[in-house]
UniProtKB/TrEMBL annotation:
Secretion signal, residue range per the UniProt entry: 1-22
Domain DUF6268 as annotated: residue spans: 132-312
Record lineage: Bacteria, Pseudomonadati, Bacteroidota, Cytophagia, Cytophagales
Keyword terms: Signal
Keyword Signal set for record: yes
Protein name per its UniProtKB record: DUF6268 domain-containing protein
UniProt entry tagged with the keyword Signal: yes
InterPro entries documented for this protein: DUF6268 (IPR046235)
Amino acid sequence: MKNIYSLVLSAALLGVSEQAIAQEILSDSAKTARAQEDPKELANPSVVGMGRSKGLVVRYEMLPRFGLHSEGKREDIGNAEADVRRNNKFEIKAYAPVINRPHFKMVVGVSYFLEEFNFKQPEGLEYPLYKQLQDKDLRSLDGQVIMLKPFNEKNYLLLRVKGELNGDYGKYSNISFDKYLRTSVEAIFGWKKSPLFSYGFGAQFGYTFGRRSIYPAVLYNRTFNDRWGIESIFPANLTVRRNLSEKSLLFAGYKVEGASYNVTVSPPFMNNETVELRKSEIRARLRWEREIYDFIWFGVEGGYRYNHRFNVHNGNDPNSDPIIETHIKDAGFVQFDLFLVPPKRFLKQ
């Protein structure tokens, strides 16, 4: 019973990326299964020093005032500019291992994400895109399955399948899967060289760079000593880790974030009822994680956001050119999260 309880609590979440969460949870599952059934450790992507896994995370992020300028790429769509007074994001995630066998492990995750735009003068907004962003929040409700297949003590396969409902929908009863569903797949074949070094190569098919595309993925996790390490799935993210103590970790690096949302617009702005908003950004970030009490931790993150894409496309043609190109001024950001990790007494079982 204690092993089952500890396995459920091991499913906690995030620092660097969703892939990193999966690595931590699958590694904890591997340790539990190995102690029970297999005297040798089968290959997995995590390395010593990555920290205790996270199973539940509540996160809030705030971006201060910034400007944006939109250019219509059709004659019937004009240009506009406005100031965003505040851009807030809220997210809650949970992960739990459901299969924990020596030669196969599976983690199931769910999350809810909400992003709101508060314009400086909302009553004076005439541009339909700005009015829609002010009136309705961008939302994402997703579920995913992460699978780890160790082949032996040196090789493994990491696979993630994810489905998201992305858009500016309000009531969940009105969600259309045809309009809002986005899917992505990631697969990495890896080598575990030692408890301190794991690497792999694969591909990601998703929306990290705004539009749905295939791009390479290079996993590189390495701990150099008891203080320094690197955690990366390039080009999506790269993080240098500094282990300050067992209760405190510091991270620095960059991360690419992107998504595609179905957004409602009012005629005669568009012939369609909905369009596709593709957004992506590159973040330089510094993060600190600290234990509050045993299984309760908090994280503080800050940095600088560079906007790469915030464009509107015809939702019926994924290969279409942008209808609107929006240029957003770069800005700083600050993020706070609270998360749960397995209690120390279970790690010593």
